[in-house]
Write a structure and sequence with these properties.
Layout (H helix, E strand, L loop, with lengths): L1 H4 L3 E4 L4 H9 L4 E3 L18 H12 L1 H4 L4 E12 L2 E3 L5 H11 L3 E11 L4 E12 L4 H10 L14 H6 E5 L2 H5 L3 H10 L1
Parallel strand pairs: 1-2, 1-3
Antiparallel strand pairs: 3-4, 3-5, 5-6, 6-7
Helix pairs in contact: 5-6
Length: about 190
């Protein structure tokens, strides 16, 4: 099946090193294309659950020169952290990172990743949801994480694969890799069927 997937010219449209690493671990051959950031402002009336797929589709428009070429399949993705109905995007600074982490402490939140596969003749869009339970962390623990890791490039200000995931997350329900940034199990299946 992996040869079938690799018969396409797959383009990962993402600057995320985590997405690149996860996709490479599957054995899928792909090329990375990165263009300048798009405006990730969401239109009114879109439900929280729809936001990640909506943003992944918006990103696809910027890669039209690649998916219109026969044989190419372009993958775009967007991950959000949702606490009740509040979307926690990437923090603006260290203080907003600390505030986000404080909000997550002692609560369950959802990580939703939207993925879009697009070629000149076909488009498949899906989302994956993982529930994550955070333990109550002290102010010192939050400060340690923010000062010693990179929360600024992550939705919700944390990476489950980092120190905070080791000591601060008590359980998850769903795909671990979805929380890292790409639901590779579902993506692999969708690429096989593409």
């Amino acid at each position: 099946m992996i040869n079938e997937v690799n018969s396409h010219h797959i383009i990962l449209a993402s600057q995320s090193p985590r997405r690149q690493e996860l996709l490479s671990m599957t054995g899928i051959k792909f090329e990375v294309k990165v263009i300048p950031d798009i405006n990730e402002e969401v239109e009114e009336g879109i439900s929280v659950e729809e936001v990640p797929v909506w943003l992944a589709k918006k990103k696809q428009k910027a890669y039209e020169a690649f998916w219109t070429k026969p044989g190419n399949v372009v993958i775009t993705a967007d991950t959000i952290v949702c606490l009740q109905n509040e979307v926690l995007n990437k923090p603006l600074d260290k203080n907003s990172a600390k505030l986000m982490l404080s909000k997550l402490c002692g609560k369950k939140h959802r990580v939703i990743t939207g993925v879009v596969l697009k070629s000149c003749s076909k488009e498949v869009a899906f989302s994956s949801v993982t529930e994550v339970w955070f333990k109550q962390l002290s102010e010192d623990e939050i400060n340690y994480y923010v000062e010693n890791y990179q929360p600024m490039d992550k939705a919700g200000a944390y990476g489950i694969q980092e120190w905070i995931g080791l000591i601060g997350i008590s359980r998850i329900n769903g795909s671990y890799f979805n929380v890292v940034g790409l639901p590779v199990d579902r993506l692999y299946d969708e690429l096989k069927n593409f």
